Amino acid sequence: MSRILIVEDEAHLAEGLRFNLEAEGHAIEIADSGEEALQRLVKDRENFDALVLDVMLPGKDGFFVARELRKAENYTPLLMLTARARPEDVLKGFESGADDYLPKPFNLAILIARVESLLRRKNWQSASETGPAKEPEPIADPPQPFRFDDKIVDFQNLQLRVGKQVIPLTMMESDLLCFLIKNSGRPVSRKQILQEVWDLHEDTDTRAIDNFVVRLRRYIEDEPSKPRYLLTVRGVGYRFEANPSKSKKS
Description:
Distance between the termini: 51 Å
CATH architecture of the largest domain: 3-Layer(aba) Sandwich
Order of helices and strands: EHEHEHEHEHEEEEHEHHEE
Structural class: alpha/beta
Largest sheet: 5 strands, parallel
Number of strands: 12
Strand order of the largest sheet: 2-1-3-4-5
Number of domains: 2
Shape: elongated
Number of helices: 8
Radius of gyration: 19 Å
CATH superfamily of the largest domain: Response regulator
CATH class of the largest domain: Alpha Beta
């Protein structure tokens, strides 16, 4: 049985989510403020398998809570609920540490599916850390680990191995890196990334995507300020090069 914390100040919505997620076999607890969530998760170190976190909370909002959790090295899978569906707000949620987002009003079946997806990722990560226990539910055509130089990207387990170091990836970092690798050698625009990676179709070309690229460069580049693998293409976007020694400099 998975343990899920719902952080939502609207009591009727929180209780509705509790009822439906308990019907799916999960154990549900509710926090009605960001302060309570941080007390339980960071100070008291309670363990949950997933979080459903509303952005519009009294006091400390969902963005703040997500940032504080990740700063405290709490990587519990996190679904963010937001009434703001603008690309800038969605990306702000991802930058804060959210693994997924869902705009209000939402379809209940979609929310349940998103939560189940987060729980599967949690199972994959646990299996990779402790050895196989329960076989995770299969996914359609999972991407295979990708190797370049001394680095291995394990998309299924959300990990990047650099030499002997293992770096955990958020789902959004993994999705972005997967997209760049699939388009290896070809420039991709920020708008393509927003639309094809995160399904954001607003007519907005935001620079917020650059923050994710900076983060990935810290992981994969020997000198992030002088990237070899993840290159900037001026006036366009970015290009991934798996074999930089064979490519022209940008």
